[in-house]
Known about the structure:
Blueprint: H1 4-20, H2 45-56, E1 61-62, E2 67-69, E3 75-79, E4 97-101, E5 110-114, E6 117-120, E7 133-136, E8 143-149, E9 154-161, E10 164-166, E11 178-181
Antiparallel strand pairs: 1-2, 2-3, 3-5, 4-5, 4-7, 6-11, 7-10, 8-9, 8-11
Amino acid sequence: MESKAAKARRAGLRGISAAALAVALVAPAGSAAATAPKEPAGGTELQEKLDILKRANPGARQLDSHTIKLRNGVIARVTLASGASAEDWPPSCGHGYLCLFSGVLGTGSRLDLFRCGFVNIGWDYGWSDKLRSLVDRQTSGTRSSFFNWNGAAWEWLGDVTAPYQYQNVPTPLWYTDGIKVC
């Protein structure tokens, strides 16, 4: 269990990192994240992942059963593992999106990010340290940066410049917990 002091330090460091990355990740209590629409009673694995992603990005609000919009404008769409196989490489990825996969060759669960801003995909969200492949279809020359949360600060892991595809991301990117999209 994390102490109040550790939580405060983490929140403060996130604020510093957010300022450095020109984003704001702080939301007042009772924000849209707390009042987002829910799926039917009983919930689903997908809804649980969306709820955790919203908690990791205060101020985020749910747009539909797969999509949230972060306070900084980033759109995040979550898709659970599908029947995609390595033969389907490269997977479709909409123009302007950074598409992330939990399995090599575009297999596993998927997280599509659209618009510029910082996204905390780690913390207690199911994507922490699970990035294995990606397709970057943002505007040519757009750079996205990948970060690991070491418990005290965000550590830079690397950059990707669009357009780009990684069938199997370099090992340092496996530890991705946050991404500055564009």
